[in-house]
Task: structure prediction
Amino acid sequence: MSSNTLTTNTIAVVAHAAGDLRIEQIELSAPDVDEARIAIAYGGICGSDLHYWSHGAAGESILKAPMILGHEIVGTVIQAAADGTGPAAGTKVAVHPATPNGTGEPYPEDRPNLSPGCTYLGSAARYPHTEGAFAREVNLPARMLRELPEGLSLRDAALAEPAAVAWHAVSRAGDVAGKKALVIGAGPIGALAVAVLKRAGAAEIIAVDMHEKPLAIATQLGATSTLRADDQEAISAVNADVVIEASGNYRGLASAVRGATRGGRVVMVGLLPTGEQPALISIAITRELELVGSFRFNDEIDQVISALADGSLNIAAAVTHEFPVAKSLEAFETAKDSSTSGKVLLEFLSE
Ligand SMILES: [Zn+2]
Result:
């Protein structure tokens, strides 16, 4: 594709307010010198995208102006960054959506995901909002781009971002080889955590959810057994060495604590609502559990891409639906029903 034929208009998925999602033409400015132009191929719908659409907010991030959604994207470079950084035109890429930023407040330097001024594509945490990338074409800083190795297709790499979130969560659990792992919540992040645990050599992986469909997906991704979320007795009897809490619900967190063995570790990756939340702390104290948080990721997306390319990480079954961008509303409705869908992809290339 010639760099002289860049369009200035493109189709994007824009959240205007609660319940007001539009597929509309937007004007695309010329890329900055450090930005490449990307033709987006696929975009995965994330819980945060659903929250902006349903509630006009994701946690404390409140929509104050229309915002393009989307941060789980892959595509092809159609114009390389003018400053010469980043991949050449024609390169297939995944995208690391974070821009770490300090504010003067302290954070561990080797964990830029915790930098207090960090921005993320498609996030209303700051104003002006950070536009997302659910669009046929976007300009993105070249440093966000991760080249896909030969043989790894855009479709197979479409879940690189949420898989990196899961990879980071499992790494927060420490060495899981030979251990018994419990995963609470088998939505996309929980299901991807199952796949990452399997790859990391966990001996047993027990997945918990309220619905059959996500449990079936978790089984395809490597869960050795499943439990229904209301079977508290069975969950308490698991005695897991490590627990990944991916439900984002305080009841799920209580199940995670109940299911952990004495001295075990609970990784909390499901984002609970802001404000105080009930928690089953007494058991955490008397069993000397370690409760650790997990937020986004750093370079784990590179490990995910390598593991997808060498076939050691198998996550294809996490995708249950694919919609052309013109049917984004239907796609969001489908993604909202966690009893019938796993990860839902938008497809941007077809007309
Ligand atoms: Zn996401």
In short: The CA atoms of residues 93 and 147 lie 4 Å apart. The two ends are 18 Å apart (CA to CA). The domain at 3-159+315-347 is CATH 3.90.180.10 (Quinone Oxidoreductase; Chain A, domain 1). Residues 46, 48, 71-72, 162 surround zinc ion (CB under 6 Å).
